[in-house]
Amino acid sequence: MALTYPYPLEFFSDLLRVNKSRLYLQRFDESSGSGDGRIWSAELSRPLWAAELSLADRPSPLAREIDGKIDGLDGSRKSFLFSDPTYGGPQNGATAGLDSVTIASISSDRSRAAFSGFPAGFELMVGDYFSIRYGSDKVYFGRVMESGGSGGELREVRPYLPLSISVGASVELVKPYFKAIISPDGYEPFDYDLGDIARGGSLKLVQKP
Questions:
Q1: Fold of the domain spanning 89-175
Q2: Cα dist. 134→46, 90, 159, 164 in Å?
Q3: pLDDT band at residue 45, thresholds of 50, 70 and 90?
Q4: Phi, psi (rounded to 5 degrees) for 168
Q5: Residue 130: CB partners within 8 Å, gap ≥ 6?
Q6: What's the confidence (pLDDT) of residue 151?
Q7: Cβ distance 47 to 26 under 8 Å?
Q8: What dotted CATH number matches 1-87+177-209?
Q9: At residue 131, what are phi and psi to the nearest 5 degrees?
Q10: CA angle in degrees (0–180, nearest 5) for 35-36-38
């Protein structure tokens, strides 16, 4: 059976048990300043999510499976869907009843969004992630900047929502994800010894727009 891209979550990302992870927005800004301390900054292109993962020790056969699937990505040429293994869902603690959440409205500058379809008592909190599929094969991944309310009010999100996302778009809150590629030279393979455990693997990845 031929490999399909991007790799589905269950084929690759779900196998990435980690000791620790860093997930952050990688910005592409140009800055200049003056002698009196003033700084000007301009965004050259949209920021992209990046992650650094320290992979947990595992039985050698499972580590070889990861090695093989990474080889199947042909370096940074092929993509996969990625969901942070350390993220357990919204901080509210609820995961049931979130399969019908949609975008209710978007501010004119695309920096704020309102949501609809929350179950009773659910509240988004600062730092919660969400993702939206749009277009033919694109995925937006964002973070909530404001807590409170039932979702109907506009609240800050980052990065700004792309123009192609419209009101009514479905929102994934329980297991948000984005499309990613391995950063150049971003995989440190596992170390194998004569025992049954492989150690020391690490992975760096970046969002594929």
A1: Elongation Factor Tu (Ef-tu); domain 3 (2.40.30)
A2: 17, 22, 15, 7
A3: confident
A4: 100, -10
A5: 141, 142, 143, 144, 157, 171, 172, 173, 176
A6: 65
A7: yes
A8: 3.30.200.190
A9: -135, 155
A10: 95
Asked if omega into 119 is within 30° of 0 (cis), the reply is: no
Q: Would you list the domain boundaries of the chain?
A: 1-87+177-209, 89-175
Return the closest-CA partner of residue 191 out of 183, 199, 179.
Answer: 199
**Environment class of 1 (CB within 10 Å of its CB; exposed 0-12, middle 13-18, buried 19+):** exposed
Phi and psi angles of residue 60, each rounded to the nearest 5 degrees, phi first? -55, -40
Q: For residue 128, what are its two tokens?
A: 């919660």
Query: Is residue 47 reached through a cis peptide bond, with omega within 30 degrees of 0 on the bond before it?
Result: no
Length of the chain: 209
Residue with the bigger pLDDT between 95 and 104: it is 104
